[in-house]
Amino acid sequence: MAKDSLSYISKQIRKLMEKEYRKDPEFRSLLALSQLGDIAKYLTHDPGLNPDARLHGSRKDEELAFGQAFVQLVGYAQSRGIDIKKAIYKGLENWEEGDWRKSEAKSSGDVIKGILAYGGSVTGKAFLDPYRERLDDMDGEILVTKFAQPQIAAYFTHAKGIITDEGGKTCHAALIAREYKLPCVVGTRNATERIPDGRKIRIEPGTKRDEGLVYLL
């Protein structure tokens, strides 16, 4: 999608939003979610996938439903002060990176390799918590977990560094680590299997671009 097309779409939706009585994010989110739910009906009523179901609508109706969902989602984003162009390009970057895919283990000996999400060197004890079930007990260690979620950001003030099995440069762990300026290596694939709880470890940047190394000491 060309940048000028995105600008036109954003401008048109902004004009339409100005005419709306309810501009609050809560209401805009409900509209967007209702339209997204309508899209799912075309899948559940697809005669090829579900022969017993009646048709939900024509192909043109489904096209309109996708359009309605898209513009309402953009309207919701605007109500939250989100630049839709930046959001889309960040989403494309995340898709290209594919940080939801399983990473291939690249470890050897006492060195675990991954993606350097935030630079710097740090040495400390490993706090092994694969499923983030005991973060309240963390106190200055290096967190070793399978992946991170936004809601655990508050615990990162108690960590010296972060290591994850999964994820890429735009995953939650990477974004939070950059915000808190914590050395972080993601996408190691098997750090939670190879690093014992309490083991002394060190995070360092690798020699290759975006390479992060974890040393078992």
Could you provide a short overview of the structure?
With 217 residues, the chain is α/β, with parallel strands linked by helices. It is built from 6 helices and 7 strands. The protein has a 7-stranded mixed β-barrel.
Provide the succession of SSEs.
Answer: HHHHEEEEHEHEE
Mean pLDDT: 91
Total domain units: 2
What is the end-to-end distance? 49 Å
Instruction: Look at the structure and give the CATH class of the largest domain.
Output: Alpha Beta
Globally, the shape reads elongated
Please tally the helical runs, counting DSSP H or I stretches of 4 or more residues: 6
CATH topology of the largest domain: Glucose Oxidase, domain 1
Largest sheet: 7 strands, mixed, barrel
Write the layout of secondary structure elements.
Blueprint: H1 3-19, H2 25-44, H3 59-79, H4 84-97, E1 111-118, E2 122-128, E3 141-145, E4 159-164, H5 172-180, E5 184-186, H6 191-194, E6 200-205, E7 211-216
Parallel strand pairs: 2-3, 3-4, 4-5
Antiparallel strand pairs: 1-5, 1-7, 2-6, 6-7
Helix pairs in contact: 1-3, 2-3
